[in-house]
What we know:
The protein has about 240 residues and is of the alpha+beta class.
Amino acid sequence: xxxxxxxxxxxxxxxxxxxxxxxxxxxxxxxxxxxxxxxxxxxxxxxxxxxxxxxxxxxxxxxxxxxxxxxxxxxxxxxxxxxxxxxxxxxxxxxxxxxxxxxxxxxxxxxxxxxxxxxxxxxxxxxxxxxxxxxxxxxxxxxxxxxxxxxxxxxxxxxxxxxxxxxxxxxxxxxxxxxxxxxxxxxxxxxxxxxxxxxxxxxxxxxxxxxxxxxxxxxxxxxxxxxxxxxxxxxxxxxx
Length: 240
C-alpha cells in the first residue's frame, strides 16, 4: 500500500475513534440521542401497524440484500410513515443524529420494532480499516469452531477492544470468524440468561433469540450461538 493511501486510512480510523468517544453531543442532548426510550419504540410500532393496515400488509421497510444479517435486514423506512402516521422521527434514530437504527424482526408472523446500536457498526468499521492497512487479520487462538481471538497488538492497538453490553454491565469482546469478518461476542450475556432463567434451549438451536425477544436492542453483528450437552454457551458450528 502506498504511503499516501495508508495515511488517509489512518486519518479515517482516527476520525471514527473520535466519533465513538461520545463527544458529539453535550449533556442532555447526548442522553436523548442514546437512550432506547420505550415510548419511542411504541410510537414507531403503532405507526408501522397503521401503515401495514392501510397498505395491504406491506411493511415500511428498506430493501436489503438477501444475505444481510437477519438482525439488520429490515430497517424502517421513516419517509413512508412520517408525517402521515407519526409526527416526527424519534430523536434517537440515526436519521436525525441518534445512535440507533430502527429495524423490524419477525416480519412474517409478528413484525416488531427493535433497535440496532450503530456504535457497534462504527467500531467494526474501524477494525476493517485497520485490516485494510495491515493487509490481513491477525488470528489468535480458536474460541469456537472457525471462530478466533483477534491479535489486537499486531493490528496496532495497545490493548484489546471491548464493547459495552446493552444488556448488562459486561464489556464484550470481539472475535473474528474464519471468513475474516469481525463480530461481537455475546456469550457472557447469553450465559447469564441461561444460568438465571433456565430457558428451554437445546443443542443446535440458535439461542440469540433469548436476547432479541427480551430486550429492545438486538444482538447485531454477531455469530449464532447454541449450547452443548452441559448447557454451556458455545458458537454454533458454521459451514466453512
